[in-house]
Each structure stands twice: as C-alpha cells, then as structure tokens.
Design brief:
Layout (H helix, E strand, L loop, with lengths): L5 E5 L10 E3 L4 E3 L6 E5 L7 E7 L6 E11 L9 E6 L9 E12 L6 E3 L3 E7 L2 E3 L6 E4 L1 E7 L2 E3 L6 E4 L3 E6 L2 E3 L6 E4 L9 E6 L2 E3 L6 E4 L2 E6 L2 E3 L6 E4 L5 E3 L2 E3 L10 E4 L1 E3 L6 E3 L5 E3 L2 E3 L6 E5 L9 E3 L2 E3 L4 E4 L6 E3 L4 E5 L6 E3 L4 E5 L6 E3 L6 E3 L6 E3 L6 E3 L7 E2 L4 E2 L2 E2 L8 E3 L7 E2 L6 E7 L4 E5 L8
Protein name: mannuronan 5-epimerase
Family: Belongs to the D-mannuronate C5-epimerase family.
Pfam families: Beta_helix, HemolysinCabind
Length: 472
Amino acid sequence: MVMGAGTYVVSGGEEPSDGCLMLKSNVTLSGAGMGETIIKLADGSDTKVTGIVRSAYGEETHDFGMKNLTLDGNRDATTGKVDGWFNGYIPGSDGKDSNVTLDSVEIKDCSGYGFDPHEQTVNMVIKNSVSHGNGLDGFVADYLSDSVFENNVAYDNDRHGFNVVTSTHDFTLSNNVAYGNGSTGIVVQRGSENIPSPANITITGGAVYGNAAEGVLIKLSSQVSVSGVDIHDNGNAGVRIYGSSGVDIFDNTLSNNALGSAVPEIIVQSYDDTTGVSGKFFSGSDNLIRGNTITGSDNSTYGVAERNEDGTDRNSIVGNTISHTSKGLTLVYGDGSFAGDAFPLVTVNGTEGNDVITGGAAHEQIFGLAGKDTLNGGWGDDILVGGAGADKLTGGTGADTFRFDQLTDSYRTATTSSTDLVTDFDISQDRIDLTNLGFTGLGSGKGGTLNISYNATLDRTYVKSLDADASG
C-alpha cells in the first residue's frame, strides 16, 4: 500500500487495541519518505491509542511492515496514552507475529512508546529509523526473538532510548545511537514480572551518550555482549551490570560518564528480589570485562568496580586501558574475581568420580582425574587433562590445549575401550599435547610413532599407537 507525500490526519477506534490504522498479513505501508508522508493523530484526541499503526489483536500477522514515512503522536494537542507503532499477538498466549520489517520510519511526539513490538514477535527488523520526543521509550523489544534493530537513532525520549525486555532472546542491536534520553540509553532487563529474563542479546557498534542515567544497563539478564560501542557523557555509569551473569563487555570506548554522581565507569552488582515477584536473588557473577578503553570524568571513582555485597563473584576484568579515575583503576571484592592485564593460569582439580567442570573467563588448567568426566574450558586459553576414564572434553573459546599425560588417559585395545572425545577442536588454534607419552612423532603408528586416521562415518579423528604392549 502506497501513501503519497502529505499529512494524513487519523483518529483512534473504539478500543485501544483498534489503533488508527491496522495492517494485515502480506501488507507493507509505504510512503514518500520520513517527513514527506506524515500520519498524524488528530488534535483533541482523548482516547488511549495502542498503535497509530499496528497489527490486529489476537491475530497471527506475518510478512508485513512499514517504510519511508513519519508517525506523529501530536502529544501537545492530545490526551491519553498514545503509542506510535504496535504489533504482537496476545501477552501470555502462544501465538506470534512474524517476518516484520520497518525501514526508514520516524516516530515522534507520542505520549507513550515510539516503536513497541510486543509479545511475541519472531524475525523482526527495524532499521534506518528514528524515534524522538516520546513520553516513554524510543524503541522497545518486548518478547522478540531472532530479530535485529540496526542503524536506528533514539533521542530526546522521556525514558529510555532502547528497552529490551520481557524474555526477548537471540536479539541483536547493531550500530544504533541513543542520546539525550531522560533515563538510560540502552536497557536490557526482565521487568517487574516473574518471567524468563532476556538472554543471548548482542549489542554491537553505535554510540550512547548524553543520557540522564546509565549509558547501558543490563539488569536481570544473561548472556549479553556489548562491543564496539562509544559510551560517553552519561549521567550515571557508562555500563551497569545489575543482577546479571554471563555478560561480556569488550572493545568499547567509555569516557566522561558519571556526570551526575560519583560512580565507576563500569559497575557490577547483584540484585535482591527475594521479597519481590520472583522471590530470588540474582547475582552479578561470572561476567567478563576486557579490552575496553576507559577515561573517567572528574566524578568517576573507578574504571571498573564490583559492589561490596554478596553475589559479585568470579568476575574477570582483564586488559582494559583505564585513566582519570579518582579512587583507582579497578576494585574487586568477590570470591574468584580478578583484575589485571592478563589472565593468570588457574588450576582446577576434579575428583575420582564422574565430574562435570566448566571453566570461566580465566586461563584454566583443568584436571578431571579418574572417572568419566565432562570438562569445558569456557572462555580463555585453557589446558584440559581428562585423566583416566572415558572423558568428554570441550575447549570452548580461546586457544585450548588437550593434554594426555598417560597412555591410560585415552586408549582402546582389542578387548577394552576408554577413549576420550574432544568435541570442538579448532585446527587454527587448538593443540593436542602428547609430549609426556614419549612418542617420537607422527608416522605409521609403529616404532614409537603415532598414526592419525579419520572415520568419515563417525566424523571422528583417531590418534593411535599400533605398537604391541607387554602382552603382545
């Protein structure tokens, strides 16, 4: 559907969920450009409008969207909560909207949200768009999955620039800009409901600056990465990790944050919700902060710091360049937390039983000892030694070494088998260390050499000695 240049005045329906304009499946609303085609809420509107343009309530809408136009909520001349764009099925129900694309759309001056895709939406793309002057958040990702927001700008919204919330997962924010918003630039959070938290969120590129609160807030979430973002001149911390775990903050530039209060540029803390809706305590543990360039403001206390409270453990602060902070470069309190230029080598020992050991961000040397062990190095450049028993070895990220100290660590004879399985060997960086076994090199498998063979059916590579033992 094509709308030419001009201003189109619209009104809401009888119910908030009617919106003003409703899109069905396989329909894209297209204008002449942002600021050229304008859909504007009528002066004097006094009803709640959940989407000037929206999808149908309770209907699984697919393959639809909007491009090259402006939605104007006209908040100075209307009353009632007004959202610009809304789509989604029914909160708490199994249905979904899917394959939604918004491109080059401006939403401004709504008393509620600008862009508000809601529960739940799969495969949504919002790109090259702008949201400003709205009463709540510029862009919301409310229970989205397999979706991307890229090359968008959120500014001068009363609350957050971008708000990723309500069980959103497998979601990417790429090269977006959030500035001059009334609270936080980018938020990833669960919200107040007792529901699964956002997970597997990627924030990469772009800039976050001049916001009244934090630049980036990660709250009650897991497996979130923030990289390549320019974060500066925000009122509170540049990045706050709040009751979240598995967060990776790397290769960002942070400068001149903490303008409104004396706080670290990056702060890590736990969140106590034991008296709240979940009844749980959320730790701020097992996070990685690495390779960032951090220059504090006159108010910045530390470059990176943990709060002195329970639940901030095993955080790794490594290889950051930090300057101009009033109290120090880094501050850690938690058990197993580390701050330094490079990871130390940490030794982790299993037991004689069947152990399951997963490493963290440090460089670890993990010994399974006896038993059928499952070892995972996690982050870092790790050394995995399964020991006796048929072990399952996973290096994880980094340049890992799988070391075998005894022939009985992994073997097969004509009558018995106790072989280890390496699940993720990367030929570009991982290594197998057999030096303690006394072999002279690779060859036929006889005369002190080792033979390498590949079983295509099992997709496995075997390293074998074919020399007879003492029993022949």
